[in-house]
Amino acid sequence: xxxxxxxxxxxxxxxxxxxxxxxxxxxxxxxxxxxxxxxxxxxxxxxxxxxxxxxxxxxxxxxxxxxxxxxxxxxxxxxxxxxxxxxxxxxxxxxxxxxxxxxxxxxxxxxxxxxxxxxxxxxxxxxxxxxxxxxxxxxxxxxxxxxxxxxxxxxxxxxxxxxxxxxxxxxxxxxxxxxxxxxxxxxxxxxxxxxxxxxxxxxxxxxxxxxxxxxxxxxxxxxxxxxxxxxxxxxxxxxxxxxxxxxxxxxxxxxxxxxxxxxxxxxxxxxxxxxxxxxxxxxxx
Length: 285
Description:
CATH class: Alpha Beta
Number of strands: 18
Oligomer: single chain
Helix content: 10-25%
CATH superfamily: Aminohydrolase, N-terminal nucleophile (Ntn) domain
Order of helices and strands: EHEEHEEEEHHHEEEEEEEEEEHE
CATH topology: Glutamine Phosphoribosylpyrophosphate, subunit 1, domain 1
Largest sheet: 7 strands, mixed
Strand content: 25-35%
Shape: globular
């Protein structure tokens, strides 16, 4: 989510029993994380490699922090063990990233990283892809859009891909990429219209913020989180960028299917379980 250029309070509740915490965390049991930014722009990440329903303190508390941008993620592991290092979101060079999907042939990806392999602390395909984004961003003189597109295009040409849905934030900007059409990714450009309460149609996730009652915001999520008619799905290969003044731009960054596209039947059993439909809302930015 972005409320830029304002530092806003966004409260993410993952609730027990009748609300989303129990239902979501039973389906997405492998970790929970929230990333945001301090007033000086430094990234802050609070994440645990356990299901939310197993953490009474997490279940009891609402997350109430101020930031221009936020990333929240609930994990069903496809690659990598249940550790803090493998829990989303990840941080590199002041940026945060969360990913939903599967990329294979990680040795080839690591070879592409070169010295940027040192940014990777866990076992996931997601963190390795993030390191590639960081490398390409540096190669493009700090242009995150160009770096994200270059990294995604290389993966689309060179590696087996099931899905590459990504949300990435800096302290005041947000990017989202859906590729290919395997999993949905939605965006809502919300106008000020009274109390904000996003609840998914399945009741699995809720985001509230009274601070946004009179402010614009942009929400990106794996599922439509309420009945607002403004939700729209990103197209396959579509890159969305929200700048520091909440201006939204989009482009088709990848106009073709992956050269080595994976189907669900091609995945290892645990990876297949993590990616199986129907989607239940694993990430929000």
